[in-house]
Amino acid sequence: MSGRKLAGAVIGISGVCLIVGLDALKGLGAQVTGQMACLLGAALYGVAAIYGKRFSHISATATAAGTMSWASVVLLPAALFFDRPWNLAPGATALAAALVLSILCTGVALLLYFRLVRTIGSLGVASQAYLRAGVGVMLGIVLLGERITPSVALGLFAAILGVVLINWTGKRATGRRLEERPLGPPCR
After folding, report:
1. Is residue 53 part of a domain?
2. For the chain, what percentages of helix, strand and coil (3-state, to nearest 5) are there?
3. DSSP labels, 131-166
4. pLDDT tens sequence across 166-182
5. Is residue 145 a part of any domain in this protein?
6. What are the Cα distances from residue 32, in Å, to 14, 21, 28, 46, 76?
7. Full domain range(s) for residue 75
8. Fewest CB within a 10 Å sphere: which of 104, 109, 137, 187?
């Protein structure tokens, strides 16, 4: 990892901390199981970004399908045990929401995720997580009429700057990448 990428990672995570603020620490230790689950999920997401690079020789479609299949194998028994779906009576809206979330927010997102891991690398893909807090802030402003504070504005700037620093390729690297790509069969 270059110094620029490391600086981008530190600036980006600092931006997220500014966006989230110290209020997020209220109740720390009150619901330890949930808090540990959040930390474990974040750690697994980071491991997936690094480990996902090993599958770059496999198509994004096959990798996403394999990921979804194994997730189903692991989660289905847990869902049957904990949720007892035979006791549920979801409405049409809930079923439609589950369908949209599973196809668009998970299936299509995994296709894009593994394609990006292949093209921009694991750190580049992981850096987009810095932007999630900013998207949440923007949705709050647009949909809920929330106001932006100076610390949140600074955090948004830092998060965006972090992503730019991590993913910046510069002219020399871009030119080198273009030169190295095979152009296909010659024309006859």
Report:
1. no
2. 80, 0, 20
3. HHHHHHHHHHHHHH-----HHHHHHHHHHHHHHHHH
4. 888 765 544 444 444 44
5. yes
6. 24, 20, 8, 21, 25
7. 3-19+58-169
8. 187
Do residues 122 and 5 lie in contact, with contact meaning Cβ atoms separated by under 8 Å? no
Answer for the pair 107, 64: CB distance below 8 angstroms, yes or no: yes
Q: pLDDT for 110-168, tens place per residue?
A: 888 888 888 887 777 777 778 888 888 888 999 999 899 998 999 999 999 988 888 88
pTM above 0.85, yes or no: no
Q: What is the DSSP letter of 101?
A: I
DSSP state of 185: S
Number of domains forming the structure of the chain: 1
Rg (CA), the chain: 20
Query: What angle in degrees, to the nearest 10, is found between the helix axes of 32-51 and 109-127?
Result: 90
- Could you give the C-alpha distances from 135 to 83, 128, 152, 164, in angstroms and in order? 31, 11, 12, 16
The CA distance from 115 to 125, in Å, is: 10
Question: How is residue 174 written in tokens?
Answer: 């871009």
Residues 124, 166 contacting (CB under 8 angstroms) = yes
Does 30 map to a domain?
no
Q: Classify residue 162: in a domain, yes or no.
A: yes
CA 113 from chain centre, in angstroms, equals: 8
